[in-house]
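User: Please fill in residues for this 327-position structure.
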């Protein structure tokens, strides 16, 4: 596998610097009222979310609907500039909670960084659909990924989920070159020949397939994925979580309520996207994917961690007990 590890190294290095600096104030940050709403006032917390409108719109909708204030929380949402800042910002206390991708969290915990997972935003779809698929150039020959030598992806890190899916479509992921490419440029990289394929989700998939120079190799079904396993997750710093269990419980309840509401009211969620400032367009419902409408069980985290071990991304063989917050 030809790849770079700069993205993961940046996360860990930044977080390590923070650990030697201002982490001492983490436990007190955002906990002025002691317990969420205990005195009738709202507890102010800062929460960072993904720039992906589909993933984050339930948080904005939940704040708008009053789900967080009902649980005693006054939430200020901010947008992550990139995936490398999520972990350092919760360790420093800049944010009490943050959305994050699974891979860097696993890497950080293996390095001993004090973070825990408090919930999930979305999950791998549990029913077949047209949410994600592999694109190739229109002149690509073959019905599998056997002929693909380069894959365009957002991160140069090995992605076990993507690796497993590539393998199930006949590709040899271990011998592929990973071309680190911004999400919005993956289709261009495939079209111009810099990469042979790319895995896209809606609405980026539909946008790519509107280009005559590209075509769909195949949609990813539940047989080629791990249905119900977490996608984007929420994290917090261990010191803060231990010092503020009532706030954590309130946050978890409000998040779950927000994502359950969005899952049951997807057209409303899609229509609310322009109000988030993340996108001016109303996406099709298919672009939202599947939200974590109920708490994701520990065994689903373990299923994903086993896949990470299979592809060498969980050398310590972590289990869900090492990742998940428990009061």
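Assistant: Residues filled in for all 327 positions:
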């Amino acid at each position: 596998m030809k790849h770079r590890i700069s993205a993961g190294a940046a996360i860990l290095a930044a977080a390590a610097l923070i650990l030697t600096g201002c982490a001492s104030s983490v436990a007190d940050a955002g906990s002025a009222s002691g317990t969420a709403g205990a005195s009738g006032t709202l507890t102010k917390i800062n929460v960072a979310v993904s720039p992906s409108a589909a993933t984050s719109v339930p948080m904005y909708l939940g704040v708008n609907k009053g789900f967080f204030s009902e649980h005693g929380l006054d939430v200020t949402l901010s947008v992550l500039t990139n995936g490398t800042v999520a972990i350092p910002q919760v360790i420093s206390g800049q944010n009490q909670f943050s959305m994050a991708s699974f891979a860097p969290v696993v890497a950080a915990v293996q390095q001993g960084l004090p973070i825990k997972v408090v919930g999930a935003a979305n999950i791998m779809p549990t029913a077949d659909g047209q949410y994600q698929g592999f694109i190739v150039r229109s002149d690509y020959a073959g019905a599998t990924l056997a002929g693909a030598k380069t894959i365009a992806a957002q991160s140069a890190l090995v992605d076990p989920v993507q690796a497993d899916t590539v393998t199930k479509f006949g590709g040899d992921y271990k011998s592929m070159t990973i071309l680190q490419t911004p999400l919005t440029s993956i289709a261009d990289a495939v079209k111009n020949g810099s990469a042979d394929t790319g895995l896209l989700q809606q609405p980026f998939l539909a946008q790519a397939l509107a280009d005559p120079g590209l075509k769909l190799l195949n949609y990813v079904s539940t047989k080629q994925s791990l249905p119900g396993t977490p996608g984007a997750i929420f994290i917090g710093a261990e010191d803060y979580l231990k010092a503020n269990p009532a706030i954590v419980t309130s946050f978890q309840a409000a998040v779950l309520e927000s994502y359950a509401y969005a899952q049951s009211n997807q057209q409303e969620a899609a229509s609310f996207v322009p109000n988030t400032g993340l996108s001016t367009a109303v996406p099709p419902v298919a672009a939202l994917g599947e939200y974590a409408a109920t708490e994701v069980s520990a065994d689903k985290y373990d299923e994903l961690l086993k896949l990470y071990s299979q592809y060498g991304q969980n050398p310590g063989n972590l289990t869900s007990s090492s990742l998940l917050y428990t009061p």
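For context: The CA atoms of residues 131 and 286 lie 6 Å apart.
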